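USER:
I wish I could look at a protein chain and see how it folds. I am handing you a single protein, as its sequence and its fold in token form. As I understand it, each token names a local backbone shape. I hope you can help me see how the letters and the tokens relate. The protein I mean follows directly.
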Amino acid sequence: MLINDKEFGEVIVRKSPLSRNIKFSVSTSGRLQMSVPKFTSEFLAKRFLNANRKMIREKLPVKDPNSQRSRDYQKKLLMKKAKEYLPYRLEYYAKLYGYKYDKCRLTHANTRWGSCSSNRTISLNIGLMKVPEPLRDYVILHELAHLNHMDHSKAFWAEVGSHDKNYKLHEKRIKMFNPGV
């Protein structure tokens, strides 16, 4: 449920069957978020929000509603670009080096550029569209190597190095960027 508030913008209301109290937090997008018991009405959630405005202003770093919309728009643009580019680049390198994966997922995680699961799903962060192409390729090759080595062993790094001679430099440079959108 979403509550549109003049001061805090869109407030995310999450109903939880385990929750006994109402709890405020800030979502990854910078929006105010409320966790409420499962049967809490919208009226009660709004009432609790109004009663706790001062505490929220003082204790939680809620972003300006305009910056929330700007971030949403940026995320939408990056997702569009990522859908048009990353799956095809992944497929290109997979065919070039003989890898077989089952699925490609696009994410917008705040801390990871990519991941590879044991069921052969490769997840790539849409934030990769903000970094130079050699770094994007490094992340893709890194995740493809995880199809054969689900760890960061010497064999894993040898495989990454066989596909990307500058992988050590790329690994350092990617750390200069933030995967969060």
Observations:
- The first strand starts at residue 2 and ends at 5.
- The mean pLDDT is 91.
- The CA atoms of residues 16 and 38 lie 5 Å apart.
- Residues 75-174 form a domain with the Zincin-like fold (CATH 3.30.2010.10).
